[in-house]
Design goal:
The structure holds two protein chains of two kinds.
Chain A lengths: L11 E10 L2 E11 L4 E5 L6 H8 L7 E6 L2 E3 L3 H6 L1 E4 L11 H11 L4 H14 L15 H13 L5 E5 L7 H16 L3 E6 L2 H7 L2 E6 L2 E6 L1 H9 L2 E6 L2 H14 L3 E4 L2 E4 L13 E4 L2 H9 L5
Helix pairs in contact in A: 3-4, 3-5, 8-10
Chain B lengths: L6 H8 L9 H44 L2 E2 L2 E2 H32 L2 H7 L4 H19 L2 H8 L11 H22 L6 H14 L12 H8 L2 H13 L6 H28 L2
Helix pairs in contact in B: 2-3, 2-5, 2-6, 3-5, 3-6, 3-7, 3-10, 5-7, 5-11, 7-10, 7-11, 10-11
The chains are: A alpha/beta, B mainly alpha.
């Protein structure tokens, strides 16, 4: 066992982690350090290695190389101890469809070793948190998609974990359900829970994460607060030029020939770092740079 | 509220948890899930476990039995009722081993959720297999109860039947889990059902003695764990236990332990990548 339990330490620490699947290197020398008590956003396009990283933190995927520790426990050897104090909200719904909300939460209260006398109270509290108390005895099959998601979150919090892993927590949800989940996740931070959240939704990272790491091709390519990332990689101001396709092509060409960083943004061309152009920028809508600009500048990939 | 976060885990921490294999709390947790699910379908399971031996006894007992009143020195209902115990155990363990494993792992992905909790692969599979074995042991009694209605006489040795069913069921559950771990799709189970399980259940001395079979088939029957289960159940239920039954018991125990480890090995390879 590490001596780290007494001294202040990272909630999650990965060093030089590599994971290959055949010829594909999903995680390629990943370094990651999550300080306790924050919401850490792992932002990256599909296939960046986020889910593989998440699975490695529960030792369901074993790294080929590198060092991993979670809550001071070394993985994979001491993974079981770390899993006792960690909750997981998976990307894919893996609820028992034949059971009721209460039954599922009770089973997981046992799996997470909530003491017998406290189980019923833990289940009630989880039902409250997820706003599912009126549906406690409904079979999962009969729940809506949003309710199932909330139940997944409640299941991951049943033992009041110190650390929560959220893998694409709102993927495929409608905006209203997404808002509900966001406030739920935001509430975790208030309670001092550390959260590691993977997402490919920029807005999600921007709204919830204290620190964002941009992941691409299996490694972290930039890290900081959302504001820092925007300033460092997209500047302050963006000019968006709208127009017919011919005009957009012209603007793109102009930007390229002048060496201005630009990208296609829906029906417009966005020119970044407009504050540095001293009025040379073409006419258009001026707006502050955002995390999406930084993300595209970093990964070269548009958001879906 | 921050004082509340991690309240349970801190209690665990002060106890300085060490890593143990096969922790009872983990096994009980996984089995509590099986019990909850069983609560949904026990009626159907119980119904079919009573119906099946009834049909076998009616068809074979009244049909064939009227032609051959005695078989291997036993009344035919004695022979069939005890034989059907073994088939009940086989089907109530191999099928759940195959289908439940595949569905929970591949379709519902519940095993992913369980393994994210402090439960390891060995505990998960052991608990699932144990649960199936317990159920097989209990439901293995059903054919005897039905047999009573057909004139089978109660015998103290029948109290051993749940234990025999448990050990046999543990082995076949492990076999089922292994099949699920190796199968590419759930349709591949048809190969196992038709090419392995069906012959296994016929060539085991369930409905007719294996002594009448050609030498090759007789030799195959002897390595069939179900044959040893049938012999043991029959000898115990009819008060004919003898030294040879220790051999049958030994085969079943070795089969159970072997399949248990193979199941953990094969499914473990698929669950952890």
């Amino acid at each position: 066992m590490t001596s780290a339990q007494t001294e202040p330490q990272a909630a999650i620490s990965l060093r030089g982690v590599v994971k290959r699947f055949g010829a594909i290197t999903a995680v390629d020398g990943l370094d990651l350090e999550v300080t306790p008590g924050i919401c850490f956003g792992l932002l990256g396009p599909n296939g960046a290695g986020k889910s593989t990283t998440m699975r490695m933190l529960t030792a369901q995927t074993l790294a080929d190389d590198g060092e991993l520790s979670v809550l001071g426990y070394e993985l994979p050897r001491e993974s079981k101890q770390s899993r006792l104090q960690m909750g997981v909200v998976p990307q894919l719904d893996n609820l028992d469809v034949e059971l009721t909300c209460r039954q599922i939460l009770t089973v997981f209260a046992r799996l997470y070793r909530v003491p017998r006398g406290e189980r019923a109270a833990a289940v009630e509290q989880a039902l409250q948190i997820a706003n599912l108390a009126p549906r406690a005895d409904t079979i999962v099959r009969e729940l809506s998609g949003g309710m199932r998601r909330r139940l997944l979150v409640a299941r991951g919090l049943i033992h009041r974990p110190r650390l929560v892993l959220l893998d694409e927590p709102t993927v495929g949800l409608d905006p209203q359900v997404r808002q509900e989940l966001w406030s739920l996740i935001d509430g975790l931070r208030e309670e001092g829970v550390t959260a590691l959240m993977s997402t490919h939704y920029i807005e999600e990272a921007e709204r919830l994460a204290d620190t964002v790491a941009v992941m691409n091709h299996g490694k972290i390519i930039a890290q900081g607060t959302p504001a820092e990332l925007v300033r460092a990689h997209a500047g302050e101001l963006v000019v968006e030029v709208y127009g017919p396709p011919g005009r957009l092509a012209e603007v793109s060409e102009l930007a390229a020939s002048n060496g201005w960083p630009s990208r296609r943004s829906g029906p417009a061309v966005a020119i970044m770092r407009a504050e540095e152009l001293n009025g040379d920028a073409p006419e258009g809508v001026r707006r502050p740079a955002n995390l999406e600009d930084a993300f595209v500048a970093l990964t070269g990939q548009e958001i879906e | 509220m921050s004082a509340q976060a991690g309240a349970y885990s801190q209690a665990e921490n002060t106890a300085q948890r060490r890593i143990h294999r096969l922790e009872p709390a983990a096994l009980a947790g996984v089995m509590s899930r099986d019990v909850a699910i069983f609560g949904r379908y026990w009626k159907a399971t119980t119904f079919s476990s009573i119906m099946q031996p009834t049909i076998y006894l009616l068809a074979f007992g009244l049909g064939l039995g009227s032609l051959l009143p005695h078989i291997a020195g036993l009344k035919y209902e004695q022979y069939v009722a005890t034989g059907v115990v073994a088939t009940a155990v086989l089907f109530s363990s191999a099928f759940p081993g195959m289908f439940n494993t595949f569905v929970r792992w591949q379709f519902q992905r519940t095993y992913d959720a369980v393994l994210a909790a402090p439960v390891d692969v060995e505990e998960l599979i052991t608990a699932e297999t144990l649960w199936i074995a317990i159920r097989a042991g209990v439901y293995g009694m059903a054919p005897l109860l039905v047999g009573f209605a057909f004139g089978l006489e109660p015998n103290a040795g029948m109290l051993l039947v749940p234990l025999i069913g448990f050990v046999t069921g543990f082995g076949f559950a492990g076999f089922g889990v292994t099949v699920a771990a190796v199968a590419k799709t759930i349709d591949n189970f048809n190969y196992i059902t038709s090419a392995v399980l069906t012959p296994m259940f016929l060539v085991a001395g369930t409905f007719f003695p294996i002594g009448q079979l050609p030498t090759v088939l007789r030799a195959i029957a002897k390595i069939n764990p179900l044959y040893h289960c049938v012999q043991l159940v029959r000898d115990a239920s009819l008060g004919m236990l003898q030294v040879a039954d220790l051999g049958h018991a030994a085969v079943l125990i070795v089969f159970a332990l072997l399949m248990w480890r193979v199941a953990i090995w094969r499914l473990g390879m698929r669950l952890i990548d």
